[in-house]
Design a protein that fits this description.
By secondary structure, the chain is an all-alpha fold. It contains 5 helices and no strands. The termini are far apart.
């Protein structure tokens, strides 16, 4: 027998799947590097930044990744990603990616320019 709690949980899961569907479709059409980059940003960045083409950033002060290319070429982030991104605000952790991860994240960021 379904309880109110289980129906609520099912509805929340269904809503999450519906919101993720456009991202899942985009991943299916992506290169392996783009897919790995998306996996990385979903795991490490999506708590604060919007990492897709449509949603708002969960943390309003965090710029959506889809706008990064409007500020500068995303390729320019490669050195910072490899050496460690440090920001002036205390809630963003420092990231230092290995060269393969840098390439993957850059490849994914470039998909947001299309």
């Amino acid at each position: 027998m379904y309880t109110h709690f289980s129906l609520h949980r099912w509805a929340a899961c269904a809503a999450g799947i519906a919101l993720a569907f456009p991202v899942i479709q985009a991943v299916a059409q992506s290169s392996p590097a783009e897919q790995r980059g998306l996996t990385f940003v979903l795991a490490n960045c999506a708590h604060c930044h919007s990492v897709d083409k449509a949603t708002d950033s969960p943390l309003k002060a965090a710029p959506p990744f889809r706008t990064l290319h409007q500020r500068y070429p995303v390729e320019d982030l490669a050195e910072s990603l490899g050496e460690g991104i440090r920001t002036g605000h205390p809630t963003m952790p420092e990231f230092r990616l290995d060269p393969g991860q840098v390439g993957d994240v850059i490849a994914y960021l470039k998909t947001l320019e299309r």
